[in-house]
Amino acid sequence: MRITSKGQVTIPIEIREKMGFLPNTEVEFQIKGDTVRMKRGMGSSSRRPRDLINRMRRKATVEMTTDEILALTRG
After folding, report:
1. Overall number of domains in the chain
2. Quick check: is 4 in a domain?
3. Which residue in 32, 34, 39, 41 could disulfide with 26, CB within 3.0 to 4.6 Å?
């Protein structure tokens, strides 16, 4: 893995998925000796549900009305 001329590094998808890093997730860096740790920033967890909903918007493929979906889920 290399750092770009802009100081950017691509986080592998496996790590992003495991840690729940979505686009616009705030992160913090901690330096200890010659090691750098990255963790989710303080403001990230409160925005995560909203970010997930925004990413899912207009992605549905089923052409059913809300009433039809509710009828299916309520039996």
Report:
1. 1
2. no
3. 41
- Whole-model pTM: value is 0.50
55 is in which domain, residue-wise? 13-74
C-alpha–C-alpha distance, residues 9 and 12, integer Å? 9
- Structural domain contains residue 40: yes
For the segment 7-52, what is each residue's pLDDT rounded down to a tens digit? 999 999 999 888 888 888 888 999 999 999 998 887 655 566 777 7
Nearest alpha carbon to residue 21 among 11, 29, 8: 11
Tokens of 12: 């592998």
pLDDT tens for 57-66 read: 877 777 888 8
